[in-house]
Amino acid sequence: MTYFTKLPAVLLLEDGTVFHGKAAGKIGTTTGEICFNTGMTGYQEIFTDPSYFGQIMVATNAHIGNYGIADAEVESGNIQIAGLVCKNYNITYSRKQANESIQDYFQEQNIVGISDIDTRQLVRHIRDKGAMNAIISSEILDLEELKAKLAEVPSMDGLELSSKVTTKETYTFGEEGAPYRIAVLDLGVKKNILRNFDDRGVHGKVYPAKTTFAEMEKDFAPNGYFISNGPGDPAAMPYAVETVKEILAADKPMFGICLGHQLLALANDIPTKKMFNGHRGLNHPVKNIIINHCEVTSQNHGFGVVPEAVRASEKVEITHVNLNDQSIEGIRVKDKKAFSVQYHPESSPGPHDSRYLFDDFIKLMQ
């Protein structure tokens, strides 16, 4: 285990708020949009979820790193968050299955963080003021210099990021002789989504974000299409919106999660918007209004569809609603085999209430 001395570090928010703490991870400087996740477990899933690309993550759980890092539990090939903010940064871990400490993991992947700050105060501040850009540094402690660097960071609003996290080459998963074939448009897909398809007898092929519908049809002739989760502003992705429109026009079965949900809305002339704080955690109650059933869900998104536009649409109908704020959590297209949800039914660790959605997609392909 790497020897680690806690050097001073600074967290500066866009509105001028400053927190002083201790260095975590690599000594350096990082920037991004700051947001918080309320999950009590699953920090490794958070670190490696491509939907968090470009974001500084505040962990509301008091201890991070206490059960180490296990190679088998990553959601992508590397850490995706821009930086970490936590209360207690635990280098010593207690789990036999772990391969290494969080400190070794962060140093290997050049991740900068800050610990030993009052995360309760920080989360209350973000909750009241909204998501904003921030900078963490354990090498620069001069606030004026940090302010100058932070001023150069672009807003998440309007950023296209999926092309930065998507696969560079196509690849397959599942058994070739499986009864169903799906094409996955990789906008930042999580590995556990693919595992859920594999568990249901699906052979899939994963394509880079800017692959066209015609290319996927010609190459793989799938029974259905999956539009994945991912980072950034969906309104800045006209290429993906066009692909979704073409899938709908061909009347192919389609399932979207998170960013895929927002793109399905945009393809049906329903606008999206940047949320004040977004939803991030393992404990969001969502009601399936079709079957009158409540699900505890895992969520990670900073953008959402405009509720009034969904309700006014003649093209789609609402299937799921968030019980905390009444935001739209699921839609399906009328007279098409296409549906989507805003949350993550594949969450692991996390609630499994919504795994039935994968089965629903299978049924559409039968």
UniProtKB/TrEMBL annotation:
<keyword id="KW-0665">Pyrimidine biosynthesis</keyword>
<dbReference type="InterPro" id="IPR050472">
    <property type="entry name" value="Anth_synth/Amidotransfase"/>
</dbReference>
<feature type="binding site">
    <location>
        <position position="262"/>
    </location>
    <ligand>
        <name>L-glutamine</name>
    </ligand>
</feature>
<dbReference type="InterPro" id="IPR017926">
    <property type="entry name" value="GATASE"/>
</dbReference>
<feature type="binding site">
    <location>
        <position position="230"/>
    </location>
    <ligand>
        <name>L-glutamine</name>
    </ligand>
</feature>
<dbReference type="GO" id="GO:0044205">
    <property type="term" value="P:'de novo' UMP biosynthetic process"/>
</dbReference>
<keyword id="KW-0067">ATP-binding</keyword>
<dbReference type="Pfam" id="PF00988">
    <property type="entry name" value="CPSase_sm_chain"/>
</dbReference>
<feature type="active site">
    <location>
        <position position="344"/>
    </location>
</feature>
<dbReference type="GO" id="GO:0006526">
    <property type="term" value="P:L-arginine biosynthetic process"/>
</dbReference>
<feature type="region of interest" description="CPSase">
    <location>
        <begin position="1"/>
        <end position="180"/>
    </location>
</feature>
<protein>
    <recommendedName>
        <fullName>Carbamoyl phosphate synthase small chain</fullName>
        <ecNumber>6.3.5.5</ecNumber>
    </recommendedName>
</protein>
<feature type="active site">
    <location>
        <position position="346"/>
    </location>
</feature>
<dbReference type="GO" id="GO:0006541">
    <property type="term" value="P:glutamine metabolic process"/>
</dbReference>
<dbReference type="InterPro" id="IPR029062">
    <property type="entry name" value="Class_I_gatase-like"/>
</dbReference>
<dbReference type="InterPro" id="IPR035686">
    <property type="entry name" value="CPSase_GATase1"/>
</dbReference>
<dbReference type="Pfam" id="PF00117">
    <property type="entry name" value="GATase"/>
</dbReference>
<dbReference type="InterPro" id="IPR006274">
    <property type="entry name" value="CarbamoylP_synth_ssu"/>
</dbReference>
<dbReference type="GO" id="GO:0005524">
    <property type="term" value="F:ATP binding"/>
</dbReference>
<feature type="active site" description="Nucleophile">
    <location>
        <position position="258"/>
    </location>
</feature>
<feature type="binding site">
    <location>
        <position position="259"/>
    </location>
    <ligand>
        <name>L-glutamine</name>
    </ligand>
</feature>
<feature type="binding site">
    <location>
        <position position="232"/>
    </location>
    <ligand>
        <name>L-glutamine</name>
    </ligand>
</feature>
<keyword id="KW-0315">Glutamine amidotransferase</keyword>
<comment type="pathway">
    <text>Amino-acid biosynthesis; L-arginine biosynthesis; carbamoyl phosphate from bicarbonate: step 1/1.</text>
</comment>
<feature type="binding site">
    <location>
        <position position="51"/>
    </location>
    <ligand>
        <name>L-glutamine</name>
    </ligand>
</feature>
<comment type="subunit">
    <text>Composed of two chains; the small (or glutamine) chain promotes the hydrolysis of glutamine to ammonia, which is used by the large (or ammonia) chain to synthesize carbamoyl phosphate. Tetramer of heterodimers (alpha,beta)4.</text>
</comment>
<dbReference type="InterPro" id="IPR036480">
    <property type="entry name" value="CarbP_synth_ssu_N_sf"/>
</dbReference>
<comment type="function">
    <text>Small subunit of the glutamine-dependent carbamoyl phosphate synthetase (CPSase). CPSase catalyzes the formation of carbamoyl phosphate from the ammonia moiety of glutamine, carbonate, and phosphate donated by ATP, constituting the first step of 2 biosynthetic pathways, one leading to arginine and/or urea and the other to pyrimidine nucleotides. The small subunit (glutamine amidotransferase) binds and cleaves glutamine to supply the large subunit with the substrate ammonia.</text>
</comment>
<keyword id="KW-0028">Amino-acid biosynthesis</keyword>
<dbReference type="GO" id="GO:0004359">
    <property type="term" value="F:glutaminase activity"/>
</dbReference>
<feature type="binding site">
    <location>
        <position position="302"/>
    </location>
    <ligand>
        <name>L-glutamine</name>
    </ligand>
</feature>
<dbReference type="GO" id="GO:0006207">
    <property type="term" value="P:'de novo' pyrimidine nucleobase biosynthetic process"/>
</dbReference>
<comment type="similarity">
    <text>Belongs to the CarA family.</text>
</comment>
<keyword id="KW-0547">Nucleotide-binding</keyword>
<comment type="pathway">
    <text>Pyrimidine metabolism; UMP biosynthesis via de novo pathway; (S)-dihydroorotate from bicarbonate: step 1/3.</text>
</comment>
<dbReference type="InterPro" id="IPR002474">
    <property type="entry name" value="CarbamoylP_synth_ssu_N"/>
</dbReference>
<feature type="domain" description="Carbamoyl-phosphate synthase small subunit N-terminal">
    <location>
        <begin position="7"/>
        <end position="137"/>
    </location>
</feature>
<keyword id="KW-0055">Arginine biosynthesis</keyword>
<feature type="binding site">
    <location>
        <position position="303"/>
    </location>
    <ligand>
        <name>L-glutamine</name>
    </ligand>
</feature>
<keyword id="KW-0436">Ligase</keyword>
<feature type="binding site">
    <location>
        <position position="300"/>
    </location>
    <ligand>
        <name>L-glutamine</name>
    </ligand>
</feature>
<dbReference type="GO" id="GO:0004088">
    <property type="term" value="F:carbamoyl-phosphate synthase (glutamine-hydrolyzing) activity"/>
</dbReference>
